[in-house]
Design a protein that fits this description.
Elements: E1 7-13, H1 27-33, H2 36-42, E2 46-52, H3 70-89, E3 93-98, H4 104-118, E4 121-127, H5 148-152, H6 158-161, E5 175-180, H7 185-194, E6 197-200, H8 201-216, E7 224-231, H9 253-266, E8 269-275, H10 286-298
Parallel strand pairs: 1-2, 1-3, 3-8, 4-5, 4-7, 5-6, 7-8
Amino acid sequence: MNAAPRDVSLIGVPTDIGASRIGSRMGPGALRVAGLSQALTQRGLRVHDQGDLHGPDNPWQAAVDGWRHLSEVTTWNERVHAAVWAALQSHQLPILLGGDHCLAVGSISAVARHCRATHRRLRVLWLDAHADFNTATLTPTGNLHGMPVACLCGHGPQALTNMGGHHPALHPSDLRQVGIRSVDEGEKRLVHALGIEVFDMRHIDEHGMRQTMEQALLGLDEHTHLHVSLDVDFLDPDIAPGVGTTVRGGPTYREAQLCMEMIADTGLLGSLDVVELNPALDVRNQTAELAVDLIESLFGKTTLMRASPTP
């Protein structure tokens, strides 16, 4: 399979505009302090840090018609879309440093646009404790970081569902969700109705991370663009406390490492979101350091001591 691009573009998006708690706006800085650029350089990658995007402040207002901060969320996502699209056009692998998970609307719609332009198939791995498939009528809060998958699949406000000029940006068959363990009832019914392939924590408990990832990665080939959307709350809060919406019972450190290593083994990683890191809730930046550790594994770091198989 094709090797991942040698040039990566770091795109900081310091906002918690779609979140239920403030603080993830500091995520990009925490990842940089944890040595992300240096770690990637040591992996043999050429790192282009584009700095941080700028957008509207968080007005911290109540929901209107089922959505909180829709106008501000749209502006941030339009800027994310433009930045990710520009990186892909420059043959760089974009790494989105969030910021909350609503930003995946902009990043994945740009990746989907790139795939249409280059005639590549898209596979999105959504690593998260939550399905993020709420809508204005289903949401208990109106927080748009609980809706990005729904928006990408065409269920949401037109400003977000038509981003990139294509509706919907993502077909449910392009998506695999891993690590899910907190889903609202209405959200659960919609996910089932659309046939989204979900590998929840019970599946991981019963079958193990290796078999889970084998299934999630099934069908990839050299014509596939693999996008990973990593919400840090995918991880168990015992090892990753620095998130705003912790859910107990997530993957352990070794399960998470195996997940990343198996993605790296495909050689198909084409873009990455790292979101929902909240340094205000962290302990001595340990969650950011863990995130950098996992990102290194996505780019080939491994503790594997076996000899490589002979061709």
